[in-house]
Amino acid sequence: MLRVGFIGTGRISDLHALEYLQDERARIVAVCDIDGETAERRAAGWDVPSTHVFSHHHELLAMPDLDLVEILLPHHLHHPVTLDAFAAGKHVSVQKPMALTLAQADEMVAAASTAGKLLRVYENFLHYPPVTQAIELIEAGEIGDPLTIRIKSNAGFSPNAWHLPLASLAWRFDPEKCGGGPLVFDDGHHKFALAWHFMGLAQEVHAWIGRMELMPGRILDAPSIVSWKFPGNRFGSLEVVYSPQLEVETRHYAQDDRVEITGTRGVLWINGGHGRLPGVPPLVLRREDRTRTFDDLPTGWELSFVHATRHLIDAYESGDPPRLTGAEGRDVLRFLLAAQQSAREGRAVPV
Ligand SMILES: NC(=O)c1ccc[n+]([C@@H]2O[C@H](COP(=O)([O-])OP(=O)(O)OC[C@H]3O[C@@H](n4cnc5c(N)ncnc54)[C@H](O)[C@@H]3O)[C@@H](O)[C@H]2O)c1
Fold first, then answer.
1. Is there a domain that residue 319 lies in?
2. In terms of CB atoms within 10 Å, which of 3, 50, 143, 205 comes out highest?
């Protein structure tokens, strides 16, 4: 039985909790949030006794009967709280991006090694069923050798999007706490992780990051375009657009994600992620002269969390390294930071 404590019980923690609540191999035994009301509400929903609800992470980490912590905090807190968790002898699963700087990421990886504990960077997009299926098709040679990856991330609106508390948005517009903007840095982690997952680490990146003032002090990092070069004459790009009048189908964030991977023999399209544009199949394969659509794939975005958490529990049991390992999370962070640097300096930079 893996005994898990949640540090940070804000917006995303409900999806994070799903698999722990249904998998008999694990249990949420404690929660911590500086917002006491949120922590109490989550604890009640997850059957955590009120004696195990804390407002300071040190109190939760002092519990002897706790194996692993899920860290779901604003980004600037990932590094210090991870170090505290290793010092307390706990395994760590930390949300993406793992830290704000590579030096912090290095300290986290070193602390995991010193403590002899597992460090997992939680990147659920890699576990989204259409992505898993796409990987299988690529490994089976369906598109030949992948040459390019093109990712489009389109935020819009939806009457069914979930409620985002103001506090959940506020820190994302503060680069000191977020590390960059909400779309290219925070959400961009998912997109760079996909590029890394499908094609490996880029060598060089060139980014133009736009600025859209939503209200005084709230600058959205869009429209933006990031392009990069992989070793071996292969390329990728990410385009980020906010279209306030575009309706997106979702129960979560009102954002459509599209990925197109082109190889020597064919093309793969993954349509959707957080949300989708209605009427498009979740996965399409064009191989040579034939087109195949995968209409019946499960597409609920929450499934990416269910599978990501199940993968962690499997790894905990088997002793295999979980994706992303700390070192892999550092690679994706390297990519993210290089894109930010490129946009600041107006030039291509090595990753
Ligand atoms: N994987 C995904 O798709 C995905 C989606 C959304 C968010 N996230 C990540 O999850 C993390 C949390 O995001 P969120 O949207 O839930 O944010 P949020 O702001 O809704 O939740 C953060 C919570 O942390 C609490 N908190 C802040 N400082 C604290 C402290 N010192 N001690 C204890 N609690 C503290 C806040 O009160 C809040 O409840 C971030 O790292 C974010 O990038 C990932």
1. no
2. 205
